[in-house]
Design goal:
The chain starts with a strand and ends in a 5-residue tail after the last helix. Strands 1, 2, 3, 4, 5 and 11 form a six-stranded mixed β-sheet that branches. With 282 residues, it is an alpha/beta fold. Strand 1, helix 1 and strand 2 form a beta-alpha-beta unit. The radius of gyration is 18 Å and the shape is globular.
Amino acid sequence: MALSLAISPCPNDTFVFHALVHGRVPGAPPVEVTYADVDVTNTAAERGAFDLVKVSFAALPWLLDDYHLMPCGGALGRGCGPLVLTRGDRTGGPDRTDLAGATVAVPGDRTTAYLLFRLWSAGRPPARIEVVPFHEIMPGVAAGRYDAGLVIHEARFTYHRHGLTALVDLGEWWEADTGLPIPLGAILARRGAVDPEAAAGWVRESVRQAWADPAASREYVLAHAQEMELDVVDRHIGLYVNEFTADLGEAGLAAVTALLDRAVDAGLVPQTSSSRATAWTS
Protein backbone atom coordinates (compact mmCIF):
# COMPACT_ATOMS: atom_id res chain seq x y z
CA MET A 1 0.00 0.00 0.00
CA ALA A 2 1.13 3.53 -0.76
CA LEU A 3 2.20 5.81 2.07
CA SER A 4 0.35 9.15 2.15
CA LEU A 5 2.74 12.02 2.82
CA ALA A 6 1.93 15.71 3.23
CA ILE A 7 4.70 18.31 3.11
CA SER A 8 4.99 21.93 2.07
CA PRO A 9 6.26 22.91 -1.39
CA CYS A 10 9.09 24.83 0.31
CA PRO A 11 12.65 23.97 -0.78
CA ASN A 12 13.65 22.49 2.57
CA ASP A 13 10.84 19.91 2.49
CA THR A 14 11.21 18.95 -1.16
CA PHE A 15 14.98 18.69 -0.72
CA VAL A 16 14.66 16.43 2.32
CA PHE A 17 11.92 14.17 0.96
CA HIS A 18 13.04 13.93 -2.68
CA ALA A 19 14.50 10.42 -2.32
CA LEU A 20 11.51 9.05 -0.37
CA VAL A 21 8.96 10.56 -2.77
CA HIS A 22 10.81 9.20 -5.81
CA GLY A 23 11.19 5.62 -4.59
CA ARG A 24 14.91 5.83 -3.90
CA VAL A 25 14.79 4.69 -0.27
CA PRO A 26 15.32 0.90 0.02
CA GLY A 27 12.48 -0.85 1.81
CA ALA A 28 10.15 2.15 1.85
CA PRO A 29 6.67 1.82 0.35
CA PRO A 30 5.56 3.91 -2.63
CA VAL A 31 4.52 7.41 -1.64
CA GLU A 32 1.50 9.52 -2.58
CA VAL A 33 2.46 13.10 -1.78
CA THR A 34 0.29 16.15 -1.11
CA TYR A 35 1.82 19.64 -1.10
CA ALA A 36 0.20 22.15 1.21
CA ASP A 37 1.03 25.07 3.48
CA VAL A 38 1.59 24.08 7.09
CA ASP A 39 -1.62 25.76 8.25
CA VAL A 40 -3.49 23.33 5.98
CA THR A 41 -1.56 20.27 7.18
CA ASN A 42 -2.05 21.26 10.83
CA THR A 43 -5.81 21.04 10.27
CA ALA A 44 -5.70 17.94 8.06
CA ALA A 45 -3.61 16.07 10.64
CA GLU A 46 -6.38 16.55 13.20
CA ARG A 47 -8.58 14.49 10.86
CA GLY A 48 -5.90 11.80 10.51
CA ALA A 49 -5.67 12.60 6.82
CA PHE A 50 -2.07 11.46 6.22
CA ASP A 51 0.31 8.69 7.28
CA LEU A 52 3.34 11.01 7.44
CA VAL A 53 2.75 14.74 7.73
CA LYS A 54 4.73 17.96 8.28
CA VAL A 55 3.08 20.14 10.92
CA SER A 56 3.97 23.00 13.22
CA PHE A 57 5.50 22.08 16.56
CA ALA A 58 2.90 24.42 18.02
CA ALA A 59 0.15 22.04 16.83
CA LEU A 60 1.52 19.00 18.71
CA PRO A 61 -0.80 19.30 21.74
CA TRP A 62 -3.78 18.59 19.47
CA LEU A 63 -2.11 15.77 17.50
CA LEU A 64 0.03 13.49 19.65
CA ASP A 65 -2.80 11.21 20.71
CA ASP A 66 -3.04 10.15 17.07
CA TYR A 67 0.53 10.65 15.82
CA HIS A 68 4.10 9.80 16.82
CA LEU A 69 6.65 12.62 16.77
CA MET A 70 9.47 11.66 14.41
CA PRO A 71 13.06 12.38 15.50
CA CYS A 72 14.06 13.55 12.02
CA GLY A 73 12.94 15.38 8.89
CA GLY A 74 11.64 18.48 10.65
CA ALA A 75 12.75 22.10 10.69
CA LEU A 76 14.63 23.51 13.68
CA GLY A 77 17.64 25.75 13.80
CA ARG A 78 19.34 28.94 14.82
CA GLY A 79 19.10 32.25 13.03
CA CYS A 80 15.99 31.07 11.20
CA GLY A 81 13.13 32.40 13.26
CA PRO A 82 9.95 34.18 12.14
CA LEU A 83 10.00 37.93 11.52
CA VAL A 84 7.44 40.59 12.35
CA LEU A 85 7.44 43.03 9.43
CA THR A 86 6.07 46.56 9.07
CA ARG A 87 6.29 49.30 6.50
CA GLY A 88 9.29 51.55 6.91
CA ASP A 89 7.02 54.59 7.20
CA ARG A 90 4.88 53.12 9.96
CA THR A 91 3.99 55.63 12.66
CA GLY A 92 6.53 55.50 15.44
CA GLY A 93 9.39 54.44 13.18
CA PRO A 94 10.88 51.02 12.55
CA ASP A 95 12.08 50.58 16.15
CA ARG A 96 8.59 50.75 17.63
CA THR A 97 7.69 47.28 18.96
CA ASP A 98 4.37 48.13 20.61
CA LEU A 99 1.64 46.79 18.30
CA ALA A 100 -1.28 47.93 20.47
CA GLY A 101 -4.09 48.95 18.17
CA ALA A 102 -2.49 47.21 15.17
CA THR A 103 -3.87 44.62 12.78
CA VAL A 104 -1.36 41.82 12.25
CA ALA A 105 -1.48 39.22 9.46
CA VAL A 106 -0.30 35.74 10.47
CA PRO A 107 0.13 32.54 8.40
CA GLY A 108 -1.96 30.30 10.68
CA ASP A 109 -3.40 30.20 14.17
CA ARG A 110 -1.56 26.99 15.16
CA THR A 111 1.77 27.75 13.54
CA THR A 112 4.90 27.93 15.63
CA ALA A 113 5.46 31.43 14.26
CA TYR A 114 2.15 32.61 15.71
CA LEU A 115 2.77 30.85 19.03
CA LEU A 116 6.15 32.58 19.33
CA PHE A 117 4.48 35.86 18.44
CA ARG A 118 1.87 35.38 21.17
CA LEU A 119 4.56 34.58 23.74
CA TRP A 120 6.60 37.62 22.68
CA SER A 121 3.62 39.99 22.68
CA ALA A 122 2.10 38.77 25.95
CA GLY A 123 0.81 41.72 27.94
CA ARG A 124 0.72 43.98 24.85
CA PRO A 125 -1.16 42.06 22.17
CA PRO A 126 -2.27 43.69 18.92
CA ALA A 127 -5.86 44.76 18.49
CA ARG A 128 -6.63 42.34 15.68
CA ILE A 129 -5.17 39.15 14.15
CA GLU A 130 -6.02 38.00 10.63
CA VAL A 131 -5.03 34.58 9.26
CA VAL A 132 -3.79 35.22 5.73
CA PRO A 133 -2.24 32.91 3.09
CA PHE A 134 1.51 33.24 3.43
CA HIS A 135 2.07 34.67 -0.06
CA GLU A 136 -0.39 37.50 0.64
CA ILE A 137 1.19 38.76 3.87
CA MET A 138 4.07 40.90 2.59
CA PRO A 139 2.09 42.51 -0.27
CA GLY A 140 -0.74 43.18 2.22
CA VAL A 141 1.57 44.92 4.69
CA ALA A 142 3.22 46.91 1.88
CA ALA A 143 -0.22 48.03 0.63
CA GLY A 144 -1.33 49.10 4.11
CA ARG A 145 -4.04 46.45 4.51
CA TYR A 146 -2.25 45.24 7.66
CA ASP A 147 -0.10 47.19 10.09
CA ALA A 148 2.31 44.27 10.48
CA GLY A 149 2.84 40.78 9.16
CA LEU A 150 4.33 37.61 10.60
CA VAL A 151 6.46 35.76 8.03
CA ILE A 152 8.71 32.71 7.80
CA HIS A 153 11.03 30.86 5.42
CA GLU A 154 12.16 32.64 2.25
CA ALA A 155 10.59 35.92 3.37
CA ARG A 156 13.74 36.39 5.46
CA PHE A 157 15.61 36.93 2.21
CA THR A 158 13.02 38.90 0.21
CA TYR A 159 11.10 41.25 2.51
CA HIS A 160 13.30 44.24 1.57
CA ARG A 161 11.89 44.05 -1.95
CA HIS A 162 8.48 44.98 -0.56
CA GLY A 163 9.85 48.04 1.22
CA LEU A 164 9.33 46.40 4.61
CA THR A 165 11.28 46.58 7.85
CA ALA A 166 11.84 43.82 10.41
CA LEU A 167 10.30 45.05 13.64
CA VAL A 168 11.52 42.00 15.56
CA ASP A 169 13.24 38.72 14.79
CA LEU A 170 11.37 36.23 16.98
CA GLY A 171 14.17 33.70 16.52
CA GLU A 172 16.70 36.10 18.00
CA TRP A 173 14.29 36.84 20.84
CA TRP A 174 13.73 33.12 21.51
CA GLU A 175 17.42 32.21 21.36
CA ALA A 176 18.44 35.10 23.62
CA ASP A 177 15.77 34.14 26.14
CA THR A 178 16.28 30.35 26.13
CA GLY A 179 19.63 29.61 24.51
CA LEU A 180 17.83 26.96 22.45
CA PRO A 181 17.20 26.49 18.73
CA ILE A 182 13.82 27.47 17.26
CA PRO A 183 11.48 24.49 16.79
CA LEU A 184 9.42 25.26 13.68
CA GLY A 185 8.17 22.20 11.80
CA ALA A 186 7.79 18.56 12.90
CA ILE A 187 7.25 15.30 11.04
CA LEU A 188 4.57 13.03 12.49
CA ALA A 189 3.66 9.39 11.78
CA ARG A 190 0.06 8.27 12.26
CA ARG A 191 -0.38 5.77 15.07
CA GLY A 192 -1.59 2.37 13.92
CA ALA A 193 -0.88 3.16 10.26
CA VAL A 194 2.92 3.52 10.18
CA ASP A 195 5.68 1.77 12.07
CA PRO A 196 7.43 4.82 13.57
CA GLU A 197 10.81 3.12 13.80
CA ALA A 198 10.67 2.13 10.13
CA ALA A 199 9.42 5.58 9.14
CA ALA A 200 12.30 7.24 10.98
CA GLY A 201 14.70 5.05 9.02
CA TRP A 202 13.09 6.02 5.70
CA VAL A 203 13.24 9.72 6.49
CA ARG A 204 16.83 9.58 7.70
CA GLU A 205 17.89 7.77 4.54
CA SER A 206 16.12 10.39 2.44
CA VAL A 207 17.98 13.12 4.33
CA ARG A 208 21.27 11.26 3.87
CA GLN A 209 20.74 11.00 0.12
CA ALA A 210 19.78 14.67 -0.12
CA TRP A 211 23.09 15.70 1.41
CA ALA A 212 25.10 13.11 -0.50
CA ASP A 213 23.87 14.31 -3.91
CA PRO A 214 22.21 17.76 -3.71
CA ALA A 215 22.02 18.04 -7.49
CA ALA A 216 19.71 15.02 -7.74
CA SER A 217 16.79 16.93 -6.23
CA ARG A 218 17.40 20.30 -7.91
CA GLU A 219 14.78 19.99 -10.68
CA TYR A 220 12.17 18.70 -8.22
CA VAL A 221 12.89 21.45 -5.68
CA LEU A 222 12.69 24.21 -8.28
CA ALA A 223 9.47 22.82 -9.74
CA HIS A 224 7.72 23.40 -6.42
CA ALA A 225 9.56 26.44 -5.05
CA GLN A 226 7.47 29.59 -4.73
CA GLU A 227 10.68 31.63 -4.93
CA MET A 228 12.45 30.46 -8.08
CA GLU A 229 15.72 32.35 -7.73
CA LEU A 230 18.51 29.85 -7.24
CA ASP A 231 20.28 31.94 -4.62
CA VAL A 232 17.16 32.18 -2.45
CA VAL A 233 16.42 28.48 -2.84
CA ASP A 234 19.96 27.53 -1.83
CA ARG A 235 19.95 29.88 1.16
CA HIS A 236 16.58 28.51 2.22
CA ILE A 237 17.85 24.92 2.17
CA GLY A 238 21.11 25.87 3.86
CA LEU A 239 19.25 27.55 6.71
CA TYR A 240 16.48 25.04 7.40
CA VAL A 241 18.15 21.71 6.59
CA ASN A 242 20.77 21.13 9.27
CA GLU A 243 21.89 18.74 12.00
CA PHE A 244 18.43 18.84 13.60
CA THR A 245 16.91 17.54 10.36
CA ALA A 246 18.90 14.34 10.72
CA ASP A 247 18.19 14.05 14.46
CA LEU A 248 16.43 16.28 16.97
CA GLY A 249 18.97 15.41 19.63
CA GLU A 250 18.92 16.70 23.19
CA ALA A 251 18.94 20.37 22.16
CA GLY A 252 16.05 19.89 19.74
CA LEU A 253 13.96 18.04 22.30
CA ALA A 254 14.74 20.68 24.92
CA ALA A 255 13.57 23.37 22.49
CA VAL A 256 10.27 21.57 21.83
CA THR A 257 9.70 21.03 25.54
CA ALA A 258 10.48 24.65 26.37
CA LEU A 259 8.12 25.94 23.68
CA LEU A 260 5.20 23.79 24.75
CA ASP A 261 5.82 24.27 28.49
CA ARG A 262 5.83 28.04 28.07
CA ALA A 263 2.70 27.89 25.95
CA VAL A 264 0.92 25.75 28.55
CA ASP A 265 1.96 28.11 31.34
CA ALA A 266 0.57 31.03 29.32
CA GLY A 267 -2.72 29.20 28.72
CA LEU A 268 -2.18 29.12 24.97
CA VAL A 269 -2.20 25.33 24.36
CA PRO A 270 -3.48 22.29 26.27
CA GLN A 271 -1.13 20.21 28.39
CA THR A 272 0.91 17.66 26.41
CA SER A 273 2.09 14.37 27.86
CA SER A 274 5.89 14.38 27.77
CA SER A 275 5.85 10.63 27.07
CA ARG A 276 3.75 11.27 23.97
CA ALA A 277 6.09 14.01 22.80
CA THR A 278 9.28 11.98 23.11
CA ALA A 279 8.21 8.42 22.26
CA TRP A 280 10.18 8.17 19.01
CA THR A 281 13.11 10.51 19.41
CA SER A 282 15.99 8.09 19.22
